[in-house]
Specification:
The protein is of the alpha/beta class. It is 43% helix and 15% strand. The strands form three sheets. The protein has a six-stranded parallel beta sheet with strand order 1-11-8-7-5-6. The protein starts with a strand and ends with a helix.
Length: 292
Amino acid sequence: MVAKLLDGKKVAKEIRDALKKRVEELHKKGIRPKLVVILVGEDGASKVYVRNKHRAAEKIGIETADVKLPQDITEKELLSIVKKYNEDDSVHGILVQLPLPAQINEEKVTCAIAPEKDVDGFHPINIGHLFMNAPRSLPCTPHGIMKFFEKYDLPLAGQNVVIVGRSNIVGRPLAALMLNHDATVTVTHSKTKNLAQFTRQADILIAAVGRADFIKREDVKPGAVVIDVGMNRNADGKLVGDVAQQGVSEVASYITPVPGGVGPMTIAMLMEQTVEFAERGVQIANRKVSHG
């Protein structure tokens, strides 16, 4: 058996093409979806992410404002900038690129973004709605992973899902999303004993640990769907995931490649959420008009 690829580039393009039409409709109503991306410092990986987000937005017709701030900016100054964009009605989405410098409390900044403009889906209010199965804004990587199951018509109800990794960005919100779709979910992590005994029982295995080739062929149940969230550099400097792709591809039924799997979907979901926020703004405005 050779696993079928869950093609993130292809699915992301389909999503972008559909979004382009939705943005054109908004333009006709005089609404220009706008995303503000705040980048603090000179982190190389963050610069690449921001550039990719900018390009994706441009193709769809979303206006972007890239706010580049010095490494030594104070927390107070950054919070003041976030507040300014919270209050700007022309801005529909705000994203502060992580990681932030040591002098800034990331949690405080995340909480400062207005929940209705939180395109990253990390605000505690939005996470709370997700766990109550009434989502408003979703973390983009878990959201993108869920799209694979929708687009490839892969069942979730009753499936045994094992997530390796418990971060606030991927593991925890993804567990909630999977539960909301009636899957049976196990979250494993660095303190889990006998990890392989869990991974080998998974109908759906999601690796999000940030360790190159961590999941091997012998860790995977034959026929499992494998989602590789990892983005690592191996000893040769090559970009690889958390899953040893060659070996695992021989036993899995479906697998996401690295690169070209989860990464493009994350950015597509960021764009989709920005457009949804702009559309939501139109709906709210229309309701206010209709109610006099």
